[in-house]
Amino acid sequence: MLTLVIGDKNLSSWSLRPWILLKHAGLAFEEVRLPLDTQQFRDQVARYSPARRVPVLLDGATRIWDSLAICEYVNERVGGEAWPSDPSARAHARAVSAEMHSGFQALRSTWSMRAALQGLQVPLGVDGAAEVARIDEIWRDCRDRYGSGGPWLFGHYSIADAMYAPVVLRFNTYGATLSPTAQGYLEFALEDASLREWLRGAEHELAVEGRPAAHL
Fold first, then answer.
1. Distance from C-alpha of 113 to C-alpha of 67, rounded to nearest angstrom
2. Buried b / exposed e along 81-110 (16+ C-beta atoms within 10 A)
3. What is the residue extent of each domain of the chain?
4. Full-prediction pTM beyond 0.70?
């Protein structure tokens, strides 16, 4: 049995990425949640991760502690089906996934993950606005090229959709202004059953904390 160690569902964007890919891949896994910035996290995370960070995937003696590396491992477990089958599309999907993995720092720092909340008003600044525009461009380009194959970025669900899932939630929380094509992808992704399951978990976390689940 696979085990995925994650942080808070309301806060941990990196945890969401492999979690939602595992759900879409249909691989059974046990979920272990360590609340971020708590003594429990500090006491327990070293048991799972040499980097003392989440997420971590455990498969017997194998440990993978990077979100994209976990996604690649999942891809191997499902015979390569987590990337597009066409080599050109697969290279494109890897490029936009790597771009998300390593970039968009202004967006990350200004619009932090608050999955269960909506209606937050936080100005982005010039750099953040440029990054939103770049994501809009990525989504439009993917949908224009591969839309005939299905509703996801590359037609069928792929690692690229998992990598951008936290952005979908950020845009929903803070109210990003998007092109019609990008907005259509956002609205479709928000209705995904696996993402809705994650959101229910985030709402439960806030309820336990005694905070409202939709608005501040």
1. 16
2. bbbbeeeebbebbbebbeebbeebebbbeb
3. 2-80, 87-196
4. yes
